[in-house]
Amino acid sequence: MVNAAILVIGNEILSGRTRDANVAFLGGELAALGIPVAEVRVVQDDTAAIIAALDALRAAYTYVFTTGGIGPTHDDITAAAVAQAFGARLERNAEAVRCLKLRYKDEDLNAARLKMADIPAGATLIDNPVSQAPGFTLDNVFVMAGVPRIMQAMFDTIRGQLRGGAPQLSRSLTLVVREGDLAAGLSELQAAFPAVEIGSYPAFTEGRSLVSVVARGTDAPVLDDVMAQVRALAAALGTAILDE
Amino acid sequence: MVNAAILVIGNEILSGRTRDANVAFLGGELAALGIPVAEVRVVQDDTAAIIAALDALRAAYTYVFTTGGIGPTHDDITAAAVAQAFGARLERNAEAVRCLKLRYKDEDLNAARLKMADIPAGATLIDNPVSQAPGFTLDNVFVMAGVPRIMQAMFDTIRGQLRGGAPQLSRSLTLVVREGDLAAGLSELQAAFPAVEIGSYPAFTEGRSLVSVVARGTDAPVLDDVMAQVRALAAALGTAILDE
Q: Are B89 and B65 in a shared domain?
């Protein structure tokens, strides 16, 4: 079974300063490629923490995608930590320097910016069409930027290299119902369709109790069957369906 | 050193359907209480995955806060998984049943809703002022709802029980500058103030390169010193400062 983990690197996520957007993007994109994300970890800008998480994840999952910590400042330590995790040398990468020269004049290519061309030996670069400083791939680990727009552009350049299983499809319906009234029927439905992952997500808006029922799996007709059963359940309970 | 981890439980976060909001909330609240969040994990609605993550985190950090998986449906398995992790019996909790009776008429208190009163033996309930179904505390683990409004209300009821260190304070300035031009100065500043965590976060808006410099630590005058140095650095580079 092909799967993935995401390792988010950055104190700003843990301190609450920044609300991560990369997990939601990657989770959706990877599911569509048939590479469900099975775990996410968020760690500090700390070499030991990065290495421990990376080693655990790269041993357990098909692919690991890291975000954050590959910029020019002192708190950008991801490339060095990944090199250390793999026992690889961190070296000035000539191709990465060429990428940086597309953006920066020679007099602007200072030591801090050149640090972004220090890449573990043996890695393959990931193009950065937005701001040139590249990410890289080493074994099953894809090291990408933390800024969402740059991360997404990098992901677009590696998408074709990823080998997934059957695409994860999903169907959803939102019912005007209290979750506890739906629970028994959903439980029976889940038992009847063990290959489908049925999720139930309550929300409360404008004084109404809503439940979004999500069915995920790889077989479209089966998912359509499940959703037909959800509609039948809603009809039996006399509950309205939204978002059709 | 007092610290914390957050364990987010839910397929909907990993699939990209839902963008988590609880980490940003808890990260900020806990930092203010002097309990910095050192790690986050997101796992599937899977008993083994929940137990493995919970056991690793509760051994490594002062506090663990879980979100998600305590509702009435078949995919809500957090309480049972936590009980198993602690080797505790999951039992119908009379106080939790009383909470549920505040919300539900007897005829609505079906098996699915009563499941929300199944709590590990030895746990202390966490009040839920929004929808009554309680969370619980067991040893250093706080089990809370995933719906942000409910999680936040639960957190308000436990805030007073938490024992933090010195509150983590922060200062920030946003400069109109390219990060690589600021990097050398920031690196010197970080070296001069090792007790302060200085972060540099680039953004690109309306064609301008911006960098937010964030200083975090426990000593307000020292943080003010650091930010004065950041202003001096900006002046030396001839860069404008926003958000003053």
A: yes
CB-based contact (8 Å) between B69 and chain A?
Answer: no
Q: What CATH number is associated with residue A205? A: 3.30.70.1130
Q: Which of A201, A205, A243 to mutate to test the interface with B (most CBs of B within 10 A)?
A: A201
CATH code (residue B19): 3.40.980.10
Q: Which residues of A touch B18 (CB under 8 A)?
A: 24, 201
B100 touches chain A (CB under 8 A): no
Where in the sequence is the domain holding A15, given as residue range(s)?
A: 4-161
Q: What average pLDDT does the segment B153-179 reach? A: 96
**What was the pLDDT predicted at B207?**
85
Indicate whether B106 and B208 sit together in one domain.
no
Strands A197-205 and A169-176, by their bridges, are: unpaired
Q: Write the DSSP assignment of A97-114 as a string of letters.
A: HHHHHHHS-GGG--HHHH
- B89 and B149 in a single domain? The answer is yes
Are both B206 and B149 inside the same structural domain? no
Co-location of B15 and B131 in the same domain? yes
Please report which confidence band the pLDDT of residue A244 belongs to, taking 50, 70 and 90 as the band edges: low
Whole-structure pTM value: 0.97
Beta strand extents in A81-226 (DSSP E only): 90-92, 118-120, 124-126, 135-138, 141-144, 169-176, 197-205, 208-217
φ and ψ at residue A162, rounded to 5 degrees:
-85, 135
Q: What is the mean pLDDT of residues B168-177?
A: 96
Is B244 a residue whose pLDDT tops 80?
no
Nearest CA distance, A87 vs chain B (angstrom):
24
Tokens 């004084």: give the residue.
Answer: A207
Q: Which residue of B has its CA nearest to A5?
A: B14
Q: Say if residue A81 is in the same domain as residue A197.
A: no
Q: How confident is the model at residue A197 (pLDDT cuts 50, 70, 90)?
A: very high
* CA pair distance A90, B182, nearest whole angstrom: 23
More confident of the two residues B243 and B141:
B141
Does residue A184 sit in the same domain as residue A63? no
